[in-house]
Amino acid sequence: QVQLVESGGGLVQAGDSLRLSCAGSGDGFNRPVGWFRQAPGKEREFVAFVTWPGGTRSYAESVKGRFTISRDNGRMTVDLQMDALKAEDTAVYYCTAGRWASGAYRPEDWGRGTQVTVSS
């Protein structure tokens, strides 16, 4: 099992950029990793994921073209660069590690999350 710790959240204005980082430790980083988010009063939703060792990326439609996921396997980190932020991006963002199954990314290990607040 891999331990995941997020950092980089904060309060920004609409149109700003923010970069989230996730540091992994322990075993199990050599698999797909991704980000989910949960806004107040809403269900947790997929944001992005990247395969192992990093050849394929996939994004939710709501963030495509604005967010970029990347991983550094030597450092065991996975980052989420968020540009052109909108108020609706406000959420707690969770780093995950999981697997590809039945045509979708399935998260298995979760970090504790980091808060992103975008003011309009």
Topology overview:
Blueprint: E1 2-7, E2 10-13, E3 18-26, E4 33-38, E5 45-50, E6 57-59, E7 67-72, E8 77-82, E9 91-101, E10 104-110, E11 114-119
Parallel strand pairs: 2-11
Antiparallel strand pairs: 1-3, 3-8, 4-5, 4-9, 5-6, 7-8, 9-10, 9-11
Task: Identify the notable features of this structure and list them briefly.
120 residues, mainly beta, seven-stranded mixed sheet, 11 strands, globular
Judged by helices, strands and strand pairing, the structural class is: mainly beta
Give the end-to-end Cα distance, rounded to a whole number of Å.
39 Å
In round numbers, the mean pLDDT is 96
Low-confidence stretches: none
Order of helices and strands: EEEEEEEEEEE
Structural overview:
- The protein is mostly beta strands.
- The protein has no helices and eleven strands.
- The chain has strands at residues 2-7, 10-13, 18-26, 33-38, 45-50, 57-59, 67-72, 77-82, 91-101, 104-110, 114-119.
- The strands form two sheets. Strands 2, 4, 5, 6, 9, 10 and 11 form a seven-stranded mixed sheet that branches. It has a four-stranded antiparallel sheet with strand order 1-3-8-7, with no helix packed on it.
Give a quick rundown of the structure.
With 120 residues, the chain is an all-beta fold. Helix content is 0%, strand content 58%. It is built from no helices and 11 strands.
